[in-house]
Design goal:
It comes from Lymnaea stagnalis (Great pond snail). Belongs to the peptidase C2 family. GO terms for molecular function: calcium-dependent cysteine-type endopeptidase activity. InterPro entries: Calpain_cysteine_protease (IPR022684), Papain-like_cys_pep_sf (IPR038765), Peptidase_C2_calpain_cat (IPR001300). By secondary structure, the protein is an all-beta fold. The chain has one domain. It has no helices and 3 strands. It has a 3-stranded antiparallel beta sheet, with no helix packed on it. The two termini are 26 Å apart.
């Protein structure tokens, strides 16, 4: 599977504050669902992405930084 980040208001492949690049394709290498402690909540879903270029890293929550 793959995912492409595309923002038509910002067509350049520039790095966004979260570390993703607009107009760039990423491989989905994993999926994780964290079940909530409260059954009335929906839980949390995470995707693990791989950057085929290997030059940049995610800078948001759960990053290595």
């Amino acid at each position: 599977m793959f995912l492409q980040k595309n923002d038509k208001s910002n067509p350049n492949e520039e790095e966004l504050p979260n570390g993703l690049h607009n107009g760039h394709a990423y491989s989905i290498t994993g999926f994780y669902r964290k079940l909530p402690n409260d059954p009335r909540q929906s839980g949390l879903y995470l995707l693990r992405l791989r950057n085929p270029w290997g030059k940049w890293e995610w800078k948001g929550p759960w990053s290595d930084r």
